[in-house]
Design a protein that fits this description.
Layout: H1 3-10, H2 15-31, H3 33-45, H4 50-59, H5 63-74, H6 79-89, H7 92-99, H8 101-104, H9 109-118, H10 121-127, H11 138-163, H12 176-186, H13 193-211, H14 217-235
């Protein structure tokens, strides 16, 4: 198949693929209900106004980045600390972009830009289960991504409203949903020994460094785990 014919195939986006993407994203939308509520409530607790809180979820649209930013803001961290932390926490999007480069390179800017904005851990995980030559289409990506975007903002709005009406919302431990969500995303993607080793190293190091209150524990654990995974893959010559 030539590049031109491949591009033509990728740009064919029937309406059914949009609906299919939306439907297949719904289970992941349900799993982040507590996460969205937590992000919305934390925004109010951090001192943001109602519309600032709504705007953060609508514009930033990055759950981990939002929670880290709000958490660091509440502890009085500097702007540089927040910027560096968010950069490393969201750096996986570089990998996502490179992985999907072949798929999006043939698309027009009016499709590439919204797909790039809507690209989250959940959307990437969903796209990796599809055959990029047939099952994965722009309509599918937009349907799944837009569904998650709308859901995230609705759940965040719920948290914003609840923050002013439900006392001691943090005692319900909604932050556990973050762990549960990432477990459901990561486990199905563990198909190699090096990946399993990286996940295990990241888990253990994050707990140890957090216990000893090392600043940037999660970032350090993730970086060390990534380098370790690459090294293990090279040692055992994993394909």
């Amino acid at each position: 198949m030539t590049e031109s014919s491949s591009c033509t195939e990728l740009t064919r986006s029937p309406r059914s693929s949009f609906l299919r993407g939306a439907l297949e994203m719904l289970p992941l939308c349900v799993s982040v209900i507590p996460w969205g509520i937590l992000a919305g409530s934390m925004a109010i607790q951090a001192g943001l106004t109602f519309w600032q809180s709504v705007g953060m979820s609508a514009i930033v649209f990055a759950g981990a980045a939002q929670l880290v930013t709000l958490g660091l803001t509440m502890t009085g961290a500097s702007v540089m600390t927040i910027v560096v932390s968010v950069f490393f926490i969201t750096s996986q999007h570089f990998i996502y972009g490179l992985t999907l480069r072949e798929f999006v390179s043939c698309l027009k800017a009016k499709l590439r830009l919204p797909i790039g904005f809507l690209l989250t851990d959940e959307l990437f995980a969903l796209s990796e289960t599809k055959d990029k030559r047939s099952d994965l289409t722009p309509g599918y990506m937009l349907g799944a991504g837009l569904t998650f975007y709308l859901s995230w903002n609705i759940f965040s709005l719920m948290g914003i409203v609840m923050a002013s009406s439900v006392p001691d919302l943090d005692k319900y431990h909604l932050d556990y949903s973050i762990v549960a969500t990432f477990i459901t995303l990561v486990v199905p993607m563990i198909k190699k020994i090096s990946t399993l080793a990286g996940v295990a190293i990241s888990l253990v190091l994050s707990m140890i460094l957090s216990y000893y209150r090392v600043e940037g524990a999660i970032v350090l654990a993730g970086l060390i785990a990534m380098f370790s995974s690459v090294a293990i893959a090279g040692i055992i010559k994993e394909k």
